[in-house]
Design goal:
With 197 residues, the chain is mainly alpha-helical. It has 2 domains: 70 residues, Homeodomain-like (Arc Repressor Mutant, subunit A), CATH 1.10.10; 114 residues, Tetracycline Repressor, domain 2 (Orthogonal Bundle), CATH 1.10.357. The protein is 80% helix and 0% strand.
Length: 197
């Protein structure tokens, strides 16, 4: 086997690994910066400094702040498979899931902060929640598109309201609630919106 024939492949693989690592570092720094500062105040320069790279590298990989935000805010709610959940427990299961997601990932908090002041972020939030909650409302109620969208919107108002007060505004009584208490308070409301008659 000719060693020289393997060399370009190995170099290319190493370059790709460095490129992937750089992009991952930028995205990690961007998520943290957007969560801390919001979309408007976060800067490419600050994100680059957090990632320990030159700002031109951020621009090279993402082009501009809006495209960087879109990539950093790519978020999947990772909703659980609810087919095994008894229909009467859907609301409680979803509240518990959302608490676990927010506690373990600052991306949604960053998106929530930015969505208040930035239309691109607000649109991203709309797509995430509509695309992932409407199918649940349809599955559990047999609702048509309009009713399912309404149900998903009402469920979103509860979940996002909880996130805003617990993770952004940090209202003491809401922050102090343990997950079981949050589930007891909000589970029945989500249940009614997504699976109620």
């Amino acid at each position: 086997m000719d060693v020289n024939m393997c060399w370009p492949t190995l170099v290319g693989m190493e370059t790709q690994r460095r490129s992937d690592a750089t992009k991952a570092a930028i995205l990690r720094a961007a998520r943290e910066r957007f969560a801390a500062d919001g979309y408007e105040r976060a800067t490419i320069r600050a994100i680059a400094a957090d990632a320990s790279i030159d700002p031109s590298m951020v621009m090279r990989y993402f082009g501009n702040k809006e495209r960087l935000f879109a990539a950093a805010a790519e978020f999947d709610l990772r909703l659980p498979d609810l087919s095994a959940v008894p229909p009467a427990e859907v609301g409680a299961a979803l509240i518990r899931h959302f608490l676990d997601r927010w506690d373990g990932d600052e991306t949604l908090t960053a998106l929530l902060r930015a969505g208040v002041t930035n239309e691109a972020a607000a649109e991203r939030m709309r797509k995430i929640f509509a695309g992932q909650l409407i199918p649940i409302a349809k599955a559990f109620t047999g609702a048509g598109e309009l009713e399912a969208a309404t149900r998903a919107g009402l469920a979103s108002s509860q979940v996002l309201g909880l996130a805003l007060t617990r993770y952004v505004l940090r209202l003491p009584p809401i922050v102090a609630m343990d997950p079981d208490t949050v589930e007891r308070w909000l589970g029945p409301t989500l249940q009614r919106y997504l699976a109620g008659s």
